[in-house]
Amino acid sequence: GLVTYADLVRYLKLKRTENWTHQHTLRTEAVGHRTKSIIPDPTVQPWYRHITSTNPKFFTTVNRVIIGHGNTPYFKHLMGKRATPYCLNCPNEQVADVDHLLNFCTASIAARRSIYQQLGIELGTSIQDHLSYPFNQEDLNLIYSYVESISDGGRSAI
């Protein structure tokens, strides 16, 4: 029989979603595990859909925490803007990536203890492991404030 325009559109949208989900699954087999663990379904509403903030930097910072990539010493080293990827505050050449700066850097021990207590998570657990979709606005506010409090030469570390 004949297919209506509405049925065709519905079918094409369904196939697009199935294809997108399949491609997302394939592409995150080797990389993107942290993001996939936080947002497992790429077809859900954007994580920031019900989050309120008038500060665009808030969304950039939280997104960097979620995906695990940011303007860190490690990233600057990869881009040739810094001689080493190591944290200037920590011994033993600790790579200053997002995970290190949020969860392990010795320069932010007191602030980290405070946010862990406020978020109700145990020391040794990563802040990223605490995140799950849908996100809690208050938790994101605390994480944003924490990231802003840790710095790399006066600039936000992430």
Number of domains: 1
SSE order in H/E notation?
HHHHHHHHEE
* Beta-strand residue percentage: under 5%
**Estimated helix fraction:** 40-55%
Structural class of the helix and strand makeup? mainly alpha
Tertiary shape: elongated
Q: What are the segments in which pLDDT stays under 50 over at least 5 consecutive residues?
A: none
**Adjacency order of strands in the biggest sheet:** 1-2
Query: Can you give the mean pLDDT?
Result: 88
Total helices: the number is 8
Protein name: Reverse transcriptase zinc-binding domain-containing protein
Produce the secondary structure layout.
Elements lengths: L4 H23 L5 H6 L17 H12 L5 H6 L19 H6 L5 H11 L7 H4 L6 H13 L1 E2 L2 E2 L2
Antiparallel strand pairs: 1-2
Protein name: Reverse transcriptase zinc-binding domain-containing protein
What does this structure look like?
The chain is mainly α. It has one domain. Helix content is 51%, strand content 3%. It is built from 8 helices and 2 strands, in the order ααααααααββ. It has helices at 5-27, 33-38, 56-67, 73-78, 98-103, 109-119, 127-130, 137-149, and strands at residues 151-152, 155-156. The chain has a two-stranded antiparallel ribbon with strand order 1-2. A hairpin with a 2-residue loop joins strand 1 and strand 2 (155-156). Helix 6 (109-119) packs antiparallel against helix 8 (137-149). The longest helix is centred in the N-terminal third of the chain and has 23 residues, at 5-27. The radius of gyration is 19 Å and the shape is elongated. The model has no long low-confidence stretch (mean pLDDT 88). This is Reverse transcriptase zinc-binding domain-containing protein.
